[in-house]
Amino acid sequence: MLAQQLTILVTGVCGQMGKYVVGGVLEEADMKLVGAVDPAGRGQPLSEIVPGGPEDIVCSGHLAAALEESQPQIMIDFTTPDVVMDNIQAALNAGVACVVGTTGLSPVDLQVVQRMCAKTDTPCLIAPNFSIGANLMMKFAAEAATNFDYSEIVERHHEKKADAPSGTALITAEKMAEASQRPMREVPTAHEELTGVRGGETAGIHVHSVRMPGYVANQEVVFGDIGEVLKIEHITTGRECFIPGVLLAVRRVLDLQGLVYGLDTIL
């Protein structure tokens, strides 16, 4: 093993993103995959779960045991909202830095992670979206929000996404509100035949969520003013787009302090 190689454990390896992450790590000369966790693949050689995966790594169903056995420097987590907090706690308690792409974490969850990072003196980077393009979309939307009074967000994801709205939509709205320092102007509707037809609202911005087969992860931020409409749209055609951001986070996380939220913080 090269001296500079980063040792990595991936959780959620049976999921779509988990498989892409494993493949991405295996292609990098400065990274070494040492562990894989997913209860759905317990006891299976990783080669049976991820094409090209190493046969000598067996998927574990128990994270704490896998952390103790493989002794990674970094855990990459793409799992589900119901287990991610326990995974982060187990990793931080073991002194393992975390790179987390699982969405659905609440502000209270982030406060808890921040305290865990401080207690264990171990860093954690959480990002609602690891796509470079999506992060640029959020940056451009925040800039546009300083010049428009009307805006709405439409996010479209695959039918298996567990949370709605997406973490990307929420953080986009937060960045827009922070940049503009005011809520977007409300467009009243005299009568709504369907409850919630105008979408949810956060930071003074209406958000609409679409869930159906055919989409991966798309988002459109629409701004309107007299005589014009501005659309800032990010379209994802495959989950491969998230891997460069994940690998960037892996290379940077050991140099961070505490909890860092958002890929844009290290771009």
Could you characterize what this model shows?
This protein is of the alpha/beta class. 32% of the residues lie in helices and 23% in strands. The protein has 7 helices and 11 strands. The protein has a 6-stranded parallel beta sheet, sandwiched between helices. The chain has a 5-stranded mixed beta sheet with strand order 7-8-6-9-10. Helix 1 (16-26) packs across helix 7, helix 3 runs parallel beside helix 4 (107-120) and helix 5 packs parallel to helix 6. The model has no long low-confidence stretch (mean pLDDT 94).
Task: Summarize model confidence as the mean pLDDT.
Answer: 94
Tell me what portion of residues adopts beta-strand conformation: 15-25%
Assembly form of the protein: single chain
Distance between the termini: 29 Å
Query: What is the CATH architecture assignment of the largest domain?
Result: 3-Layer(aba) Sandwich
Overall strand count: 11
- Uncertain runs: none
Q: SSE string, helix = H, strand = E? A: EHEHEHEHEHEHEEEEHE
Short key terms for the protein model shown above:
six-stranded parallel beta sheet, 267 residues, five-stranded mixed beta sheet, Dihydrodipicolinate Reductase, domain 2, 23% strand, elongated, Rossmann fold, alpha/beta
